[in-house]
Task: structure prediction
Amino acid sequence: MTSQSAITWPNHFLPGTTDNFVSNERIVKDMTSTQIWSLLANISKWSSYYKNCSDITPPFTSTPFLHKSDVFKFSTFGFPPLTCTVEESTAPESNGRAGRLAWSSKTPEGLELYHAWLVEDLEGQRVRVLTQESQIGQVFKEWEEQKPNKMLLGHQDWLDGLVKAARGEKEVGETNLESIGFPVRK
Result:
């Protein structure tokens, strides 16, 4: 039996203590963590496989890859561009160490979020991709109660698009958010 890695949470965003928390995961065969990481950590690739993001402003560095303390912006779920600070960015390693990417954001209106990713190779030529987000603020309280849960569907779209892109598929296709009439970038 093997154990799987877990997200490392700041106390302020500990799941179960915030207004909304979502968790999405994919385990995929015949894929590696480096294939996923090359698309996830490279912010310039996001809009190629995730329709629910736009207005991306990469960090002011010489590379589009996100590193700890980088600041970037992007718009998602109908919000104006969020200013995000990378809290964690560690590429996966062949020795089994999981890749970790996380960012936080706080808006002038008082909304706060912490979005974390974990990418790890598993036995049998499989990769596990986990994304979790913990959110604070009135709109997130409302979203937590709404059905279907837009955040849960949107993050599943992100995972599904990421896996398709890692397989070399160009077309994202209809997303979960589109299927419920939520506006996304075409």
Q: What stands out?
A: The first helix runs from residue 33 to 40. Residues 16-169 form a domain with the Alpha-D-Glucose-1,6-Bisphosphate; Chain A, domain 4 fold (CATH 3.30.530.20).
